Amino acid sequence: MRILAVDTSAVCAGVAVTGNGKILSECSTNTGLTHSRTLLPMIDSALKNAEIPLDSIDVFACSAGPGSFTGIRIGVAGIKGLCDATGKKCIPVSTLEALAYNLLGSECIAVSVMDARCNQVYCGIFLVDGDKVERLTEDEAVKIDDLKEILEHYDGKIVFVGDGAELCHKTLGYEIAGAGNRFQRGSSVAFCAEEKLKNEAPIDGEKLLPVYLRLPQAERELNNKLNNKLNNK
User: Fold this and answer.
1) Same domain, yes or no, for 122 and 87?
2) What are the Cα distances from residue 80, in Å, to 5, 33, 38, 179?
3) Between the CA atoms of 5, 73, 134 and 112, what dihedral angle is there, to the nearest 10 degrees?
4) How far apart are CA 34 and CA 32, in angstroms?
5) 86 burial class (0-12, 13-18, 19+ CB within 10 angstroms)?
6) Do 83 and 27 belong to one domain?
7) Are residues 17 and 116 both part of a single domain?
C-alpha cells in the first residue's frame, strides 16, 4: 500500500511517501514559512523523489490535530483537495499519536507534548515497544504542573517528544527525544495511518475534519469578554 502523508500541525511540517511500511521519500521544513506556501511544493517534491505519480497513491493520511489551528486547517484542506482530485480516500490520525511513532525501535513511555501556551501542553501518552505503539491516554490539554502528577503513576523510561518536549524537560525532568526525532514527521503519520488501516476503513475527503482540544484563542478571548460583561452587570 502506498500512502502520502502530511503533517502541518506545528512550525515543523512534513510530507512522506511510504510503501508497505517503507519510507520511499520524505521531506520536512522548519523555516517558519506559512504552510500554505510550502505544503504543495513539498508534496510535489516527495512524489518526484519517490518517482511515483499522484494517481498511484492508494490512500492519503493527515495529522488532523491537535496543534496550530491555522496549520491543521491547511493540512486538512490540502488532503481534501488531493482526495477530490484523485477520487481516493484518506485516514486522519492524531498528531500526538503520530509523534510517538518517531520513537519506534525503542522501549519507553512516549509522552507526546505540544506547546499549547498559557503553561499548558497538548498531551498524549503511549507505550512504545519496539515496532509497536499502544495508546495509554486520550489526547488532552493539561497544565504542565498537572502533568507532573500524571507521570508519577508510570514506571519505566519516560521520553518527551514534540515541540513541547524541551519545555516539559526543563520543568519536569525526564528524558527528551533527540533533535532528529523530536518534531513532526510525515513518515510517522504514514506509519500511524498504516496501523489504523488494519482496523479502520479510510474516509472520503469531505468527511475529514480538524480536531481541536481547545477553542481558538480569538473565541476564548471573546467568551471571556462576554463573561466579564455578564458578571459586571
Assistant:
1) no
2) 12, 22, 17, 31
3) 110
4) 6
5) middle
6) yes
7) no
Number of structural domains, the chain? Answer: 2
Contact 96, 162 (CB under 8 A): yes
Q: 155-189: per-residue pLDDT in tens? A: 999 999 999 999 999 999 999 999 999 999 999 99
Give the CATH number of the domain where residue 43 resides.
Answer: 3.30.420.40
The whole-number pLDDT of residue 47 equals: 98
What is the total residue count of the chain? 233
Q: Are residues 178 and 107 in the same domain?
A: yes
What's this model's pTM, rounded to 2 decimal places?
0.91
Average pLDDT score, the chain: 92
Q: Does residue 110 sit in the same domain as residue 170? A: yes
Residue 34 lies in a domain: yes
Residue 232 lies in a domain: no
| Confidence check: pLDDT of 25 > 70 | yes
Residue 7 belongs to domain spanning: 2-96+184-222
The continuous run of DSSP H or E covering 39 comes out as: helix 35-50
pLDDT > 70 fraction of the chain, expressed in percent and rounded: 91
**Contact call for residues 160 and 181 (beta carbons, < 8 A):** no
User: What is residue 190's predicted lDDT score, i.e. its pLDDT?
Assistant: 98
Give the whole-angstrom CA distance, residue 82 versus residue 53: 12
Cα Dmax for the chain:
65
CA distances from 139 to 135, 136, 158 (A): 10, 10, 17
